[in-house]
């Protein structure tokens, strides 16, 4: 299987007013095509920094970061990012927000009819065909996140990178979007890397959970394989002893082995 992402001895150091801050140390991680990987760890440990390395928004100070065999040198349409705060352009409709991304990626090669078809298909994929003419301030937070996901998916990225995409949503909307995301990922065979704070979300969605130690110089403490059959159903999992076993392993890592220092 092709290694879509390969991080080899990656270190990240930030220059700050107080001197150099060593954020990430010796990160080694390979991700296969079609895999769903979550990054979990205490606040400030470096999850977003790690995601940003793959996104090309942050350079590694040392080590190598590769995507599809090529060095990651900056952001690219093959690595689409979805942030917690949707980042839609408020003056554009849902349709136009997606169309803009589609045009940027495919505009040089494809005609307007094809670009329109791609945009409508993306809206349909997230169940928002009815909202195509609405502007971001006319739709709910969950719908905005769905437009953000649709925009990312419409660019047909090789990898979907998500930084706490559901973090700002209420529990019910969050559960609904997790279910939708599972269906979309299954239908598109997407490779996904997602930052989350939510242990249940990590177990429900992941093939592998990458657990980071506390910073400074955070590194990968352990990678847990989630070998629960797919498709996954949250209600059935609630009564599945294996689900609870995996869940408690993550909790044990976070709250016994990586107890967050009180002063942090
Ligand atoms: N540009 C920067 N300059 C200096 N320090 C930075 C910079 N970006 C991040 N850091 C520091 O690096 C560490 C990791 O930050 P990061 O945002 O990756 O953590 P995180 O695990 O995503 O946190 P959270 O869960 O709270 O979002 C933090 O201590 C942060 O203060």
What this model shows, in words?
The chain is α/β, with parallel strands linked by helices. The chain has a domain at 3-78 and 157-259: 3-Layer(aba) Sandwich (Rossmann fold), CATH 3.40.50.300. The protein is 36% helix and 25% strand. It has eight helices and ten strands. The strands form two sheets. It has a six-stranded mixed beta sheet with strand order 6-7-8-3-9-10, sandwiched between helices. It has a four-stranded antiparallel beta sheet with strand order 2-1-4-5, covered by helices on one side. A hairpin with a 7-residue loop joins strand 9 (208-212) and strand 10 (220-225). The longest helix is centred in the C-terminal third of the chain and has 18 residues, at 171-188. The chain is globular, with a radius of gyration of 19 Å. The N and C termini lie far apart (40 Å). The mean pLDDT is 92. The structure holds adenosine-5'-triphosphate. Adenosine-5'-triphosphate (ATP) is lined by residues 14, 16, 21, 23, 41, 43-49, 215. The site of adenosine-5'-triphosphate has 13 residues, from strand 1, strand 2 and helix 1.
Summarize the structure.
This protein is α/β, with parallel strands linked by helices and 264 residues long. The chain is built from 8 helices and 10 strands.
